[in-house]
Every structure is written in structure tokens, then in C-alpha cells.
Amino acid sequence: MKSYLTVKDILQRKHFDHIEVIAGTEGLNRLVKWVHVVEVTNIRNLLNGYELILTTGVAWRENKDSFISIVHQLIDSQAAGLCIEIGTYTSLIPQEIIDIANKFHFPVILFHKEVPFVAITQDIHTLLINQQYRIISDLEEYSQSLNKKLLKIEHYNDILKCIQHYLHVQVIIHFSNNDFQFTPEMNEHDKHILLEKIEGLQAQENFTSIASIPIQLLGDDYAELIIFSANRSLTEFDQLILDRTATALAQFFLRELYVEEKRRVEEAEWLNSWLLGEQSEDSIKEFITFHSPAVKPIGAVVCLYQLDSNRTYTSLDLTYMKIYFRSIFEQKGFTLFAIEKRNTIIFIFLNERTPSTWKIRIEEGISRLKSSESQSGKLQENLVIGIGKYVEQLSTIHKSYQTAAETLRIQRKLSNKQDTHFYDDLHIFRLISQINHHLDLKEMVLEYLEPVFAYDKKYNGKLIETLKIYLSCNGSKQETAKKLYIVRQTLYHRIEKLEKLLGDDFMNPEKRLAIEFMILAYEFLESSNRVGMINRD
């Protein structure tokens, strides 16, 4: 389908019987969007581009410098070409004009007989307007054709073939994982050359032989659709067809993701037994090979996403979240399996890249989630995520699951709400949590710190705060006073009081270590219970 007019097409119309193309023959394929009659010397601001200019030459009246200036203005304004009526005001075209037009492939056409400019403009404008109506009709027909295809196609390549056959261009789809699909197919050498050429064209400000559009899924770029023509400039119609095709591809990919997610729901029972440590290494490999044949995992880790207990989620919401996580973390080298359990979405991340970088890549993914949420609000405002230990043996995934759950439990109890999601980063809080499971941690804390609690409660002495800062500053009085915003004399008084309550040896290494541990344990218990624990009652 010819969705555009060129200078060459215009020259086939009536009133162009007695013409001569004297320059710029290589530019006869320039697009024509309108026809203007111009008889002035300053025209740079009168044009929008792609106009075919008709003139008698009265504006320059054999003035070569004015003629050259007009030609340069037309070229700079992206005009389609210049048609000059020879005889009344212009009888000879200077060689300089011909040289300039040839250099820039700018067509210069002579009318050797008088022609009615009004009739030409009326004819061409009618043609252009009718063409716009036809474009709208053809665009609607193409869109309906795509919608029908979406009901029965099984592979996105059918959509790529559709636009390729319709526009007769080279079609390329570039996925976010850096995979390319060419339609029609090309050999590797030609692919490499074409991609380099496209990259070079995209670096230019004015390129008309290539057009591209992102394909977005759930607010993120999933792929880029590119069309390229070596024979013609691409038009607005090509861009509209490209846009409709990208929309159809997005619908197809989203449908595929939802179908895939539905299939994964059916796998939930098996995945749950895996998380409980009830599957062997062989059965796990068989499961992965069946569902994701291309995946070759070299380790795994469990990630728990805690849902907001005050919010009601539909099955569509949960499916959306799982797809959203998958779309981000699969780009980081992970294959995800997911199930829902007790207000939590459990993700098993199968690592396909270097094990030493797994944590960095997950951190990048979480950062992407947070930045996306600040703009789109797809997930809940505060991401509550717990990531367990990385395991090399897939049959030991239950250890990662248990530690991920422990990470969430500890996170909920931390008073300072540390911005960490990894079990490996909890360090001493893991030990505190374990002790709290098996011993009376509150009793241990009171054994060391009860005199300080009692003093603060009675005199509001802020000794616990002072003790914590003093220890964190490694006993530096100057730094401690600065952080507490108090004078040194006040600090000296508080330290003397601490020595009386804790003993003047409280800064000795072993005792200091125990006291620091008990302060952290105290904060852990306080944030857990949210009730006073200073009094034994």
C-alpha cells in the first residue's frame, strides 16, 4: 500500500506534461505533504517541511544571489522540491543553483510552458486530502486485522510478519534481555551490519529511514519495536502502523504472561513441598527441566514479600504483583517461581549467573521496585521483603525459606527499622532472636541494665541513651558530647553515674561487649512488645 506521495508521483499528474528535471534527480523520492506558491525572498519561517514549491521566479528577477539564498532556505526548511515556470521572469538557471541542488539531492523542475498554479494546487491538495482519509480508513482496517489475529495466533512472530508484509520494511524487535528478532530473517553478518547502521542513524538528529517505539508492560519497557527501510523515508502513517503493532504486541505478551502465571499457580502445591524440604535434588531438576528447559540454576535463594494485612487483594492483584517481580528480577539473571501463603508471596529465585554477584543483583532489583513504586504506586508504599540464605544445593531451599521468614520476624522487631532485607546482614540480631527463642532474654537484659532503667525512670537521666552513644563512639567523650548536644561537664556527670550503677569496669572489653549486646537486645524487645520492660512487674 502506497501511504505517501513523492515528488516523482506528483510529476506524473496532469499539468506536468512539459517539464524538465534539471537538478536533484536523486531526490525525486522526497515526500510531499503540501504544495505552496511562493513569490517572496524570505521564506524560511513560512514552511513546515515537505512542501513542493511552485514559483515564476518573480522574487529574484534574474538576481542570482537572491536565487541562491532562496534555494538554501528551501533546503534548510526540508522542502520537497522547487518547480519554476520558465519564460515570464526567469529564462536561465545559473550553474551554481544546479550544483547546490545536486549536492543536496534537491529536485529543481522547470515548466517550459505556462501552467495554472491554482489548478495544480487544487489537484494536489485534493489528492493529499483524499489520501489522508484513505490512511485513516486503512489504519482502522489494519487495527481490526491485528485484533482478529490476536484471538488465534500462538507466537508474536505472526504479528511481526503482519507489519512487515504491510509496510514492506525490515522489522526488528529488541527485547530487554538484549535478544533480537529479525523479520524477515537475516544471516548473522547482515544482522550485525544492519544493527550498526541503525545505531549510526539513531545518533543523527534527522533520520527518516528508521522508526522505533517501546513496548511497555506494567509500566516498564519490555522490548523495542524497530522498522527500517533502505528504499524510502518513513512517514507518519508508518509510525501509526508501528504504534498499533506495538500495542498488539504488548497485549500478546501480557496475555502470555498471565497464561504463564496461571500455570504457575497450579504448581503451587509442589513448590510448597519443595520449600518444606520434601523434594530430592533429582525431582527438583526434573521439575525445572519440565517447566523451564533453558534454565541451568547454580544456586537459589528465597524472597518473602509481606502483604499489607489491612488491605484486601484480589487474585488479579496477586497475579499482577508476581508478574511485576518477575519482569524486574528476570532481567537480573534470576528465574522466579512463586506461591502465596498466609498473606505473603513466596518467591524462589533460581540464580543463573555468577553466584558471587547474586546479592548485588537482588539489591538492584529491589532498588528498581522502590523507584518504580514512588512513581506508579503499583505495590504497597513500604516494601516489606525478607531474603534468606543463599543455597547451592536446591534440595536445601528450605533453609533459605526458614531464614527468610526469620528475617521478616526480626525486621518487625527492630526499632530503628534498618533498611536491610537480607538475613546475612542482620548479624547480631540473628543471635538475639535465637536467644530469645530459648531463654528469658528480658531477664538477662535486666540483670545488666536494670539499675540504669530504674535511674532513668526516676530522674529522667537519659543514661541509657548516653551509654549507647558513648559505647558507639568507642569511649570518646568529645564525640559523645557532640552527638548528644551536651557540654562535657554534663557528660562527665552522667559517666560517673553509669560507673556507680554498672561498675567502674563497664568499659573493660568483655563487660563492654556484654553491655552492648544487652542494649541491642533491649531495643529488640522494646520494639517487639511496645510495652515498658524496665519494671519486673
UniProtKB/TrEMBL annotation:
Protein name: Purine catabolism regulator
PANTHER family, per the entry: CARBOHYDRATE DIACID REGULATOR (PTHR33744), DNA-BINDING TRANSCRIPTIONAL ACTIVATOR ADER (PTHR33744:SF1)
Origin superkingdom: Bacteria
Domain Purine catabolism PurC-like: 9-128
Pfam (any one): PucR
Stored InterPro entries: CdaR-like_regulators, PucR_C-HTH_dom, PucR_C-HTH_sf, PucR_dom
PucR C-terminal helix-turn-helix domain residues: 463-520
